[in-house]
Structure formats: structure tokens, C-alpha cells
């Protein structure tokens, strides 16, 4: 069975948590595509070369979740040739046998416009910043500034800007618990799977 769940949305909206839960519940493979851009940014040097030669070791680095790595990721993610170098890997992953969940910024719009389920997960910037702050610690005001700056760059860029696909289902998790957001996503995927079989 080929079945793709595309989860897009701004920084720290809960895409990863929802993606992992959907993958686990239905036995799908899961790809956090942000890791690809974080790994390219963390390599330093020529980002296009880095994107063309990413290795499993690059993706397993332990410094990919820092605020700096997030900023570096969003800068290299604006470069068309970087995105192009990462496209085939993501598309192959999305259409693999057995089902796949991908979370990122452009999965429903560019990587997999025919995904069976498209979710756009969002929340107010303050809520997202607080969630990220719980993960990385430090200064909350700085985390909020980082989230806002990255969102602005991701939405304004010419290449694959962050925006919901026309047929994406919007999930605003500002006032939802993680459990409720996960439950809503699971129900949506379940309903679509029942139609597919
Ligand atoms: O975890 P968080 O939502 O904060 O970020 P991420 O998903 O790890 O993505 C880091 C950065 O990579 C984003 O700010 C985007 O600039 C870029 N990205 C992208 O352009 N396209 C994707 N499909 C995934 C990430």
C-alpha cells in the first residue's frame, strides 16, 4: 500500500509529535524533513555541496536541535539548489511501500502534492515558543524571537514558502492538548484509510 501523510506547519507547532504518533499507530515510516535542512546548515561550507552529499552521520549529529541549528537550517532552506538536492530522497520516502508520514514546510505543496492526507498544524507564536523553550531551555524571549524570525523567513522565501496546501486540513493546537491534537490527526488519517480500502 502506498499512502502518504503530509504534515506541514511553522516552527514548534507539534508536527513531530503528531507525525510520530500517526506513524506508530498505523505502522508507517516517519521522516522529519527538518533534520535534512538542519544537517545541511550544521555542516557549514557550501550548502549545495552539503545537500548533495548528506550522510547518515550528518543526520545523527547531536547538535541539530539547538536554536542556532534552526536558524542555519532556515537560511540554507531558502536556497533553491539545496531544496532540489533533497527532493528525490523525500519523494521516494513518501511513496515507499507500507505508508509514510513526512513533516516539514512544503510536503503537501511541493514534495507530495498528491498526498492522501495533508495536515497543516499551527498554533500562536507565544504557545509554540513556550513549547520549544521547554525543550531547549534558555531565555523564553529569545526563543520567541527565534521562532518569529524563522517563521517570517520561511513564509517570505521565493522557493517553496511555508503555506497550507489548498486541500490541507488546518489543525490549530493553540488551545489543544498534545493528546487532543494527536487524537484529531489519528481520526483524520483513519477516516481516509477507510475510504482507501
Ligand atoms: O522543529 P521545527 O519545526 O522548529 O523546525 P524543523 O522542522 O526542524 O525545520 C528547521 C528549518 O528547516 C525550518 O525553519 C525551515 O526553514 C526548514 N525546512 C524547510 O524549509 N522545509 C522542510 N520541509 C522542513 C524544514
Query: From N to C, what is the helix and strand string?
Result: EHEHHHHHEHEHHEH
Number of contiguous helices: 10
What's the level 1 CATH class? Alpha Beta
CATH topology group: Rossmann fold
Please give the largest β-sheet: 5 strands, parallel
Mean of pLDDT: 96
Report the C-alpha radius of gyration, rounded: 16 Å
The largest beta-sheet arranges its strands as: 2-3-1-4-5
List the helices and strands and how they pair.
Layout: E1 4-8, H1 15-26, E2 29-32, H2 34-43, H3 47-52, H4 56-59, H5 67-76, H6 80-94, E3 100-104, H7 107-111, E4 117-122, H8 125-136, H9 140-156, E5 169-172, H10 178-196
Parallel strand pairs: 1-3, 1-4, 2-3, 4-5
The structure holds cytidine-5'-diphosphate (CDP).
Describe the protein in words.
A five-stranded parallel β-sheet has the order 2-3-1-4-5, with helices on both faces. Helix content is 56%, strand content 12%. It has one domain (4-191): Rossmann fold. It is of the alpha/beta class. The model has no long low-confidence stretch (mean pLDDT 96). The longest helix has 19 residues, at 178-196. It is globular.
Summarize this entry quickly.
The protein has a single domain, classed as P-loop containing nucleotide triphosphate hydrolases (Rossmann fold), CATH 3.40.50.300. Helix 2 packs across helix 5 and helix 5 packs parallel to helix 9.
Name the descriptors.
197 residues, alpha/beta, Rossmann fold, five-stranded parallel β-sheet, globular
Amino acid at each position: 500500500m502506498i499512502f502518504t501523510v503530509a504534515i506541514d506547519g511553522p516552527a514548534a507547532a507539534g508536527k513531530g509529535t503528531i507525525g510520530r504518533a500517526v506513524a506508530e499507530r498505523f505502522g508507517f515510516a516517519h521522516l522529519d524533513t527538518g533534520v535534512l535542512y538542519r544537517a545541511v546548515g550544521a555542516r557549514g561550507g557550501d550548502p549545495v555541496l552539503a545537500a548533495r552529499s548528506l550522510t547518515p552521520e550528518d543526520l545523527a549529529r547531536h547538535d541539530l536541535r539547538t536554536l542556532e541549528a534552526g536558524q542555519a537550517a532556515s537560511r540554507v532552506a531558502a536556497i533553491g539548489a539545496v531544496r532540489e538536492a533533497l527532493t528525490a530522497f523525500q519523494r521516494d520516502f513518501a511513496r515507499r511501500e507500507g505508508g509514510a508520514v513526512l513533516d516539514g514546510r512544503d510536503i503537501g505543496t511541493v514534495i507530495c502534492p498528491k498526498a492522501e492526507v495533508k495536515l497543516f498544524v499551527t498554533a500562536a507564536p507565544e504557545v509554540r515558543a513556550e513549547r520549544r523553550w521547554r525543550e531547549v531551555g534558555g531565555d523564553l524571549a529569545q526563543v520567541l524571537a527565534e521562532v518569529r524570525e524563522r517563521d517570517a523567513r520561511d513564509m517570505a522565501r521565493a522557493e517553496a514558502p511555508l503555506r497550507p496546501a489548498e486541500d490541507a486540513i488546518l489543525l490549530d493546537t493553540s488551545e489543544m492538548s498534545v493528546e487532543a491534537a494527536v487524537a484529531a490527526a489519528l481520526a483524520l488519517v483513519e477516516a481516509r484509510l477507510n475510504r482507501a480500502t
